[in-house]
Amino acid sequence: QVQLVESGGGLVQAGGSLRLSCAASGRTLSSYVMGWFRQAPGKERELLTAITWSGGNTYYVDSVKGRFTVSRDNARDTVYLQMNSLKPEDTAVYYCAARPYQTPNYVYWGQGTQVTVSS
């Protein structure tokens, strides 16, 4: 079992920055992929970025390329999402999640953290 706890959300003005953290515990994650998702009111949850725990390979959806950066600290079992140049449309609940390399579906989820960007 894996437990994921997000933190770092809050209220920020457009153009500002936030860094979200996702602390993992419960088992080794060396064979997992970590993803950051968000869900805005009335919209479906979307995958923003992912990173392999062992190799650090990354993926970004086009809408956040150049603005968001995912990273991980293996020693702290923590994954980060640095968000710059935030826009009001980035307002959502942000979730981190984990899946084994060999499966397409994310099986472990955090509780989410609210990010609100004011114009």
Which outline best applies?
A: globular
Structure classification:
mainly beta
Largest sheet: 7 strands, mixed
SSE pattern, N- to C-terminal: EEEEEEEEEEE
Count, helices? 0
As a percent range, the share of helical residues equals under 10%
Report how far apart the termini are: 40 Å
Mean pLDDT: 94
Strand content: over 45%
Radius of gyration: 13 Å
Task: Note poorly predicted spans.
Answer: none
Strand segment count: 11
Could you explain the architecture of this structure?
The chain is globular and about 40 Å long. It is mostly beta strands and 119 residues long.
Task: Provide the descriptors you would attach to this structure in a database record.
single chain, 119 residues, mainly beta, seven-stranded mixed sheet, four-stranded antiparallel sheet, 0% helix, globular
Write a short abstract of this structure.
By secondary structure, this protein is mainly beta.
Topology of this protein?
Layout: E1 3-7, E2 10-13, E3 18-25, E4 32-39, E5 46-52, E6 58-60, E7 68-73, E8 78-83, E9 92-100, E10 108-109, E11 113-118
Parallel strand pairs: 2-11
Antiparallel strand pairs: 1-3, 3-8, 4-5, 4-9, 5-6, 7-8, 9-10, 9-11
